[in-house]
Amino acid sequence: MEFFVIKLVLVLIVFLVSLGVAAYSTYAERKIAAFLQDRIGPDRAGPFGLLQPLADGLKMFMKEEIIPTHADKFLFILGPCIMMMTASMTGVIIPWGHGLEINGSFYPVQITDINIGILYVFGVVSIGVYGIMIGGWASNNKYSLMGAIRASSQMISYELAMGMAIIALIMTTGTLSVREIVEQQHGIHWNIFTQPLGVILFIVCAFAECNRTPFDLPECETELVGGYHTEYSSMKLGFYLFAEYINMFISAAIISSLYFGGYNFPFIDQLGLSPNMLSMLGTIIFFGKIFFFIFFFMWVRWTIPRFRYDQLMHLGWRIMIPLAIVNILGTGVYVLFKNGQLHF
Amino acid sequence: MQLTNRSKVVVNKEMTFAEKIYLPAVLSGLAITIKHLFKKSATIKYPEQTRPVSENYRGMHVLKRDEQGRENCTACGLCAVACPAEAITMTSAERKKGEDHLYREEKYAEVYEINMLRCIFCGLCEEACPKEAIFLTDRLVPSDFVRTNFIYGKDKLLEGTSAELRVDVSKRINAHRKL
Amino acid sequence: MNPSLPFFVLATLSVFSALMVVLSRKPVHSVLYLIFCFFTIGGHYLLLNAQFLFAVHIIVYAGAIMVLFLFTLMFINMNKELEPHKSNLLKGAATIAAGCLLLVLVAITKGAETLPAISKSSDIGTVSNLGKALYGQYLLPFELISILLLTAMVGAVMLGKKDVE
Q: Do the Cβ atoms of C55 and A127 come within 8 Å?
């Protein structure tokens, strides 16, 4: 019983935190865009415009709800639901902190640590495509369909390279569990130092999976009106946009826990603090890393222009995948060498 | 013939390896954008702050009164004739007994309208006016949601009688004198 | 609670969705029911403690192959007018063929109740056990399958290549 209560509270916290972070990501996106373009950004709602996400959310709720006449009604509603559901499901396996020891029992700050670990994320992300595809198709609109098709082909293409980048990582860590991967990176033994190429591949693929610039072809305004969510209005559109920001938050969390040490930080043993304090400090640092990567996502968005579609496919299939295979081979040699099984 | 040394000859040459892997170019781009994060923003928060304007700035019109608070305009129609955008219309009326404190001349404009969507703020009405009744000021025409609201009548154009409601046009007169 | 209750719920759902694949009028709905069917089958894997198989099943079948199915179906404009007319003879032949298939399938499952029950130990389907089995006991078939896939891939590349005269 106690187990369920703790897990339920954790689920609730993770869900609310990811919603909160996503809401303030929209604000951060606008602010950072403004700062990078020498502007001020939203600053009217509350001090420094801090209430802007609330105002935006309220606006979304108040907007008229439109379902096109020839749209498939059920699927039209199902699309954003799947998108939102898959976006909020991925946070389950991320270890947000080492864990707290209260009254002699240990409580890890993670909802569950399943042994397929990172594969679970892949499964859920691959379901997320359906949210876009179903929504785009059910809208019964050319632009939506084009956006949906672009999204699905892009996500399938980059999922391959992403999976291969992960395979190389798993070869060095020897486990699929995200928690164990993070624990192995104790101190400054971060995976970025053993997998420099893998990091670049993974981050590029994460951009593509989140449909962020320079890979935002599914919703590029200049070509496709609004892409797959052209016909959506009100909170259904809000769900799509919101899910995108949650995805960004989760991928930032995954990048930082797989390659950048998660809740570990340098000189963790030299501080001489109690384990509980260290764990809390670790969580704060983990969130610092996550926010840095969210900032990085936005920074890149306002720097690099969008790819052309053929360039996107060229990059995905003819550069990323061969590079990922080379990375796997190189990692194989490295692992053998490290284990002393390779003799020259 | 080369006019400036800024022109660049476009060549479709093979990219070098450093260019092909994109990353150096991406990183230099990121460096450029991050520099802008620390630059001063160019925004002017309009209703609270305003941009400085030149002395002879031509903004929203004002219909002047004289020192005793009487309207200067005599509805001669010269401004309407001078207006290249045909934005000004007026209806004249005769001054009645007992209205001496309201209108300076025997004839006055009962209706005086400027369509601010047509107006090009050229200032010809001001130059045409023989009575120093209309001036362009450094005020801006505020935005609105309805087009009909941009037809400004005397209620919006005429300055008030009290000292604080008067619109200062001395700068504008000085600018004229300089010309 | 009956321990086999989850199984029966999942089984009902998978049979229902499989039927709906055939019965639903819109092709896109059929594909979506098929995806749902894959999920329920994935649930069966989970009941058998085969989490890795579950994840791979979802990623590969539901996440990649069905996306391609849906992808193609979205391009095809299928409606009543364009549907080719099928003669009654064809319909009868199809029914008989499908009936024969059903007979064969039922005949196969007839002997299934004598099979030994799968051990319920919790680590049977874990990645490490599966890896040991694939790269130890079943190394040769595994490698042969990878060669088969490689051949298929080369074939696909050959088909996709432009003719160079």
A: no
Q: In this predicted model, what pLDDT tens digit does every residue of A125-180 receive, in sequence order?
A: 888 888 888 888 888 888 888 888 888 888 888 888 888 888 888 888 888 888 88
- What ipTM does the predicted assembly reach? 0.78
pTM exceeding the 0.95 threshold for the entire prediction: no
Task: State residue A215's pLDDT score.
Answer: 83
Q: What are phi and psi of C44, to 5 degrees?
A: -60, -40
How far off is chain A from B42, nearest CA to CA, in Å? 6
Between the alpha carbon of residue C128 and those of residues A214, B141, C142, C144, the distances in Å are: 38, 75, 16, 21
Which CATH number does the domain housing residue C53 bear? Answer: 1.20.120.1200
Boundary-marking domain end, from C25, C56, C80: C80
The closest alpha carbon to C69, from C23, C18, C20, C29, belongs to: C29
List the Cα angle A68/A74/A75 in 5-degree steps: 85
Instruction: Classify residue C20 as exposed, middle or buried by CB count within 10 Å of its CB (0-12, 13-18, 19+).
Output: middle
Which of C28, C32, C55 shows the shortest C-beta gap to A116?
A: C55
Position B87: which residue type?
Answer: A
B27-41 per-position pLDDT tens digit: 888 888 888 888 888
Q: How many domains does chain C have?
A: 2
Task: Show Cβ contacts of residue A310 under 8 Å, excluding neighbours closer than 6 positions.
Answer: none
Whether C64 has its CB under 8 Å from any CB of chain A: the answer is yes
Spatial CB neighbours of A288, under 8 Å, sequence gap ≥ 6? none
Domains of chain B in sequence order: 61-178 (3.30.70.3270)
DSSP per-residue string spanning A107-164:
EEESS---TTTHHHHHHHHHHHHHHHHHHHHHTT-HHHHHHHHHHHHHHHHHHHHHHH
In 3D, which of A59, A58, A41 has the Cα closest to residue A50? A41
Burial (CB count within 10 angstroms: exposed 0-12, middle 13-18, buried 19+), residue B3: exposed
C121: in domain = no
Q: Between chain B and chain C, are at least 3 CB pairs below 8 A?
A: no
